[in-house]
């Protein structure tokens, strides 16, 4: 019976892949058509009337009429929507909102998720991930087993209880199509528990008794915690002893590079696949469509999002000029600008991307506009540090669980530099050699950093601290950011995170 069910899903996913092929073949036409639909649907909203959507004829008109927005601009509109007002940024009343993880700020952001956005963007993005995986692996058997999603939870908005908010993963679980619910593990109620530590405990005990696990999806940070706990409780050498039919881990939110070795130890088989997805609170943007993780993710062009891209030289300008899809260049950093069927108009989510291919359009996430170190003109992005760390680990046999980086500012007695806090999964035999090699690799990857490091004239060698196991987990708990879509901030152009962690270590010494 399970084989026939999997076959039925394979036939549906094959049809969806043909639609993906079409937008890959006609990307510009697909985006222009979608843009017209968005403008037409939103003409009678308050935002549409304020910006005269009725008389906008071309994407160029739209770019002239509507400035690039940040969250602070849209926040008053979203607050009114959460209190039940209709036709503000999107037609009708919006009942559900995704709550951002607050990666770069302790302040939460709430993103409207009307039904059309949930169905045509987030849930359809999940379908696209499966369609691309089944196209790449025709022998896939995901729907013969169980799937566990490491998601968050939902809660009611107290001033207007009709409104619900929570992690976008929780919204997707809550609204899983009925045909897919039998495959969710263990059950929606458990997956939606608000307390991360209680949820983790229940997931571990349930997973030990489920031999048919085929797929897990979630942020690597918290999935690693789950899988380690399962191995500790079962005494198994690896997880394939427990789940012999396991075949796919879907990840996103942070770079997978620091975690890859850990997962390969959990699942020591080349038959287990890894698929990166780009599903943010604001939309489901991309899916890895090849077996090569360096190829990037296919940009999803038909799922309710019209894309523009802000070149790096425009990021700090008062009136930045974004370019449409048909003007982008490969190998160049852009900040993402989106207009969506969720009521976000020329909105900056804060992510930066680089095109790895223009035929088809593939991207990789390089960082965030607020998550970098540029205290000395070195312009170091998360993509740089992830790559330098992965290469250093590969050369030394080390494994990294978590890390964060901050600038060390110039004082009378010290040159400037970067301070790294690293929690090792497998410590290197020689920490000093690891430190030197990491600094050398970062120089090779980032020419601006290399120039500042030349003969130690401007910057000294990076300073590395190996912190005890569990440090980042404790810090995230103290910040109220355990589980779900919460991610450890990798880079900051300030010292707040590093100082908080160092103070935590002093208090526990």
Biggest sheet details: 12 strands, mixed
CATH class of the largest domain: Alpha Beta
Count of runs of 4 or more consecutive helical residues: 16
- Taking pLDDT < 50 over at least 5 consecutive residues as the criterion, the unreliable ranges are 102-106
Main sheet: which strands, in order across? Answer: 6-3-7-8-9-10-11-16-15-14-12-13
Structural class: alpha/beta
How big is the Rg? 23 Å
CATH overall fold name of the largest domain: Rossmann fold
Name the helicity range: 25-40%
Produce the secondary structure layout.
Blueprint: H1 2-25, H2 27-41, H3 46-50, H4 59-65, H5 71-82, E1 96-99, E2 110-112, H6 115-136, E3 146-149, E4 154-156, E5 164-166, H7 168-174, E6 184-185, H8 188-191, H9 196-208, E7 213-217, H10 220-234, E8 248-251, H11 260-266, E9 273-280, E10 283-288, E11 297-299, E12 305-311, E13 323-324, E14 333-340, E15 351-358, E16 361-368, E17 372-373, E18 380-381, H12 382-396, E19 399-408, E20 417-426, H13 431-445, H14 447-453, E21 463-467, H15 471-478, H16 496-508
Parallel strand pairs: 1-5, 3-6, 3-7, 7-8, 8-9, 20-21
Antiparallel strand pairs: 1-2, 4-5, 9-10, 10-11, 11-16, 12-13, 12-14, 14-15, 15-16, 17-18, 19-20
Helix pairs in contact: 1-2, 1-6, 9-10, 12-13, 13-14
Describe it for me?
There is one protein chain. This protein has 509 residues and is of the alpha/beta class. The protein folds into two domains: 370 residues, Rossmann fold; 137 residues, GMP Synthetase, Chain A, domain 3 (2-Layer Sandwich), CATH 3.30.300.30. It contains 16 helices and 21 strands. It has a twelve-stranded mixed beta sheet with strand order 6-3-7-8-9-10-11-16-15-14-12-13. Strands 2-1-5-4 form a four-stranded mixed beta sheet, with helices on both faces. A hairpin with a 2-residue loop joins strand 15 and strand 16. Helix 1 crosses helix 2, helix 1 packs across helix 6 and helix 12 packs across helix 13. The longest helix has 24 residues. The N and C termini lie far apart (58 Å).
